[in-house]
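Morning!

As promised:
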Amino acid sequence: VTADAPALALLHEEPTGGEPVLMRGGSDLQLTDELLAPLWRRWPWFRYAIGITGLGTVVLLAALTYTVTTGIGLWGNNIPVAWAFAIINFVWWIGIGHAGTFISAILLLFEVHWRTSINRFAEAMTLFAVVQAGLFPIFHMGRAWFAYWLIPYPSEMGVWPQFRSSLPWDVVAVTTYLTVSVLFWYAGLLPDLAAARDRAPTLFRRRIYGLFALGWRGELGHWRHYRIAYLVLGGLATPLVLSVHTNVSFDFAIAQLPGWHSSIFPPYFVAGAIYSGFAMVLQLMIPAREVFGLKDVITRNHLDNMAKMLLVTGWVVTYTYMVEPFMAWWSNDAYEIYDVLVDRPTGPYAFVYWGVVFCNCIAVQALWLKRWRVSPGRLFVVACIIQLGMWSERFMLIITSLHADFLPSSWRIYVPSWIDWTILGGTVCFFLFLFLLFLRYVPFIPISELKEMRRQLARRRHA
Amino acid sequence: MLSGVVAEFETPEALEGAYEALTRQGYTRLDAWTPYPVRSLVKAGFDGSIVAWIMLVAGLAGGALGYLIQLWVNVRAFRINVGGRPLDSAPAFIPITFESAVLLSAVTGFIAMLALSRLPRLHHRCSRSRASSAPPSTASGWASTRRIRCSTRASARP
């Protein structure tokens, strides 16, 4: 125990006031060992959790195999509702990913202290959510084995992608997003993998973590390049995350379909993405915080701040819901007015519309109350409601705009098939499966950054 | 042959003090292994990193490459007339230009960061000499003082 341990115990308050962001004292060595302890401990429940989610993943693979071998007709979508579940789930999953990058990159640039404890967590969520998102467009193409045709490459067919369409933009945006997120996540992990290597109890684990740590030793020369590279990666990820959902929204906004053709879509989609993403971070973080006893690392301050982010993005989304009917009315376009002002609130999918209004606009207002913001149980319930609301919002946007298009003769009620539901449930299991593996084998609280933050806060307090 | 001396310090402050004292005595080949960047040392040892410049150049090159690929594909290799709109539609090429710039910059930056740190590296003499007994300070924080022999160019020499 170092000499300054008593001082350290007091110092983890947010300099701007409010609740502490870290309530753990002791030496750096103690903190390292405490945060690494879950890696070396046995988790009695792990085999059951990984078994159930693994089974769900197998079901997903089976459903996808069935789709590929039989044909896309197994899904509920058909003309005029050609997009349906595949694109709803794609937009939903990729939106969830956005909060991870928001927390790790944007809050890094703003030097927000409460980001540190949860950023690794949120970044891992991003990666696994983007993996789920990527599955949908690939299988929605029908012939998934030709997915590589989306990439420009010289072939004897002489056929190239059409870059004046928004769909190739999406391909590039999502693959870039995945690649940069992996690099940013792995760069942040390097010092902690080195810590795991150095503290591992067995030779085998030391070798495995040593392999992934790439020989990191924390020399001055390492830190000198690392700090700059990490900061610039954060700077690159910041506009990137805004661009990805902007590109996703272009898929809709550039079409001429009533209900989609709107210039508010890019900011609306980005806000909605961060909204659902923060809800997902809370849905994962609150149980993990209980299970691993991390209440002094992920404090009430974190819950409070995350809840405030939900409130802000929730209001941006609510604002868009108010602007959309106004724009439809202002456009004076009969189809636009019918779709947005008549079909959505009173048509066959009205229950989805009003459900969205309740989940995304009304339920979140509970977070004005501090006791709702800092109570893990209540916050978890609100996060689940928001998650449901954000999925339903994409359902509303896609289905109501498509099912009643310009000619009433082609109108059709869309109902998802059981394969649709199986694939959606399967991706949730696959996501949790990957996330559990991450929790089990990777230091999921950024140890090095946490120690550095603690030192900085101590110095500031001392000064 | 004793080619260097290594010491461990309890706190970052002690390390900073020793580093400053040795610098004042004229030692130049000093290095420190720390579990997180100790700001004054990183600043004292080096002034900035070339990584940012490499990433800037790679980003500009990536953007240019992304734009040129789109231009060549849609204007030369595979011309499609969509309602008489121009083949060279600069605004439509912007999203991919931006993404390519970010992609190349990030990938290059990551590789450059590792390469400049001489990583990945499976084995280092200083870490092996202690791996069996106590872990090096990368992770453990600031433990007891000890001396070991090791022969890196990073060791202290008058």
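The first helix of chain A runs from residue 5 to 10.

Hope this helps with the figure draft.
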